[in-house]
Amino acid sequence: MRIEIRPAFDDAVMAAELPIRKAAAKMLQLIQQLDLIQLWSHPGLNFEKLRGMIEPSTGQQLYSLRVSGSARAITCLLNGPTIVLVSLHVQHDKAYRK
Question: HEC string of 5-24?
């Protein structure tokens, strides 16, 4: 799977504490090895659709992806397949706010 990283995601990873940065790097390595079907079904990533939430600049549906026990990445999917890492939220509950 191809990965596109938005500046907001990259900035949040760089500002995060070391355990979150390591978890993000591990997640990136893992999703590079997966196809779309494997991404949907991978139990550790917990990839799920965020109902009623779209990416403002593209209008794409947003999804949540587990980075760690507390951190979530907000993503969208493009044709190709490409996963776009839009933002990183260190606190799980804040990832789901509009």
Answer: ECHHHHHHHHHCCHHHHHHH
